[in-house]
Amino acid sequence: MAARVAAKMGYTNIKVYHAGAPAWVQAGNVLLSTPEFVKKRLGFIVLIDTRDTEIAKKGYIQGAVSIPLSKVVKERNQFPVDRKAYIVFYSQNTDLEKLSPVVKEVIGWGYRHVSVLEGGYEGYVKSSGPIQKDQIRTTIFYLPRPHPGEIVGDEFMNIVRNRPKDKLILDVRTRQEAAMGMIQGAINIPVDELQSRLNELPRDKEIITHCRTGLRAEMAYSILRNAGFRARFLNDKVAIIENKLYCCFK
Known about the structure:
With 250 residues, the protein is of the alpha/beta class. It has two domains: 2-132, 3-Layer(aba) Sandwich (Oxidized Rhodanese, domain 1), CATH 3.40.250; 150-247, 3-Layer(aba) Sandwich (Oxidized Rhodanese, domain 1), CATH 3.40.250.10. Helices cover 30% and strands 20% of the residues. The chain contains ten helices and 14 strands. The strands form four sheets. A five-stranded parallel beta sheet has the order 1-6-5-2-4. Strands 8-12-11-9-10 form a five-stranded parallel beta sheet. The chain is elongated and about 55 Å long. The relative contact order is 0.13.
């Protein structure tokens, strides 16, 4: 699906890792996060500066907490209770070899979204990301809340039940998936067709996208936002079996 979208955007040298990120991590590998991802989600993720605290004070990513690499495992008790929290570790550079053992340890605690910042602090600064100096927190403070553009399950279900006139549910699954059942009142435009079918959507409504797991819904959200639509996406699992909706069980 993502490959078809990339092809329509003009990319030609496209390869697909069918097993996906979960299988990559399960195989013992570590994921990288980009500076762009971090900049968009400042305040929504746990950023851990693994350099020495005195070095970090000279310049660190906005909102980061200082936990030197050698102390991360010892500080397990202060990590978020929410195992779905996004946790990003960084050093001066990518330093994947140094950070990987600790990242794998944290993944072993049950956290689902753990990664290393590509390029580290230096790469982030080159991307013009906001930084701070001097005082830096040494304890994690995490308040679970939806990421930019996300809609929470309870609100999504209220929209499904009440069908407010100012909102539209957009099902971006394939036609084959939609044929198995759809949410009442929703319309189906597969995500790989969305860019060419934007003229079919209303400009006077907020569009709520959903798919089966949340991945394609977020892709559709990005397409809609770039085209000037008001939109949000459901980052959760949805199944429609015998016309009965099963939602938000990620």
